[in-house]
């Protein structure tokens, strides 16, 4: 099984930046699709960014050009968030998926407000 822990959330002003980190309990990035999802107040959870084998990348239209997902050679996946806007306010969740296996972290709060 895989356990995921998110960190890096916080309160920022519009236009600010944050980098979220997801740390896995074991190495999974060689075979798993790793992703960031978010759930804003009163909204359903939505996909933000996904990175997978073979350099597969996918971003939500709302974050293209502002957010960047990446991974290192160990157990971490990152979400660089630039030019944050109030509509980005949400709990951000890390996800690991491989075939029928699907794991979620507990989430980290990102609040964008002046």
List keywords for this structure.
114 residues; mainly beta; 7-stranded mixed β-sheet; 4-stranded antiparallel β-sheet; globular
Describe this structure in words.
It is a single chain. By secondary structure, this protein is mainly β. Helix content is 0%, strand content 54%. Strands 2, 4, 5, 6, 9, 10 and 11 form a seven-stranded mixed sheet that branches. The radius of gyration is 13 Å and the shape is globular.
Outline the secondary-structure elements.
Layout: E1 4-7, E2 10-12, E3 18-24, E4 33-39, E5 46-52, E6 56-59, E7 67-71, E8 76-81, E9 90-98, E10 101-104, E11 108-112
Parallel strand pairs: 2-11
Antiparallel strand pairs: 1-3, 3-8, 4-5, 4-9, 5-6, 7-8, 9-10, 9-11
Radius of gyration: 13 Å
Largest sheet: 7 strands, mixed
Low-confidence stretches: none
Terminal CA distance: 40 Å
Please provide the count of β strands.
11
Q: Please count the helical segments.
A: 0
Q: What class do helices, strands and sheet pairing give?
A: mainly beta
Percent strand equals over 45%
Q: What is the chain-wise order of helices and strands?
A: EEEEEEEEEEE
Q: What percent of residues adopt helix (DSSP H or I)?
A: under 10%
Look at the structure and give the mean pLDDT. 94
């Amino acid at each position: 099984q895989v356990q995921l822990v998110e960190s890096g959330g916080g309160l920022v002003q519009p236009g600010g930046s944050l980098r979220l980190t997801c740390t896995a309990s074991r190495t999974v990035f060689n075979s798993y699709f790793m992703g960031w999802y978010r759930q804003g107040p009163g909204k359903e959870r939505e996909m933000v960014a996904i990175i997978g084998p073979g350099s597969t990348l996918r971003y939500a239209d709302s974050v293209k050009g502002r957010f960047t997902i990446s991974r290192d050679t160990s157990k971490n996946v990152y979400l660089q968030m630039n030019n944050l806007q109030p509509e980005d306010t949400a709990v951000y969740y890390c996800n690991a998926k491989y075939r029928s296996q699907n794991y979620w972290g507990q989430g980290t709060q990102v609040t964008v407000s002046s």
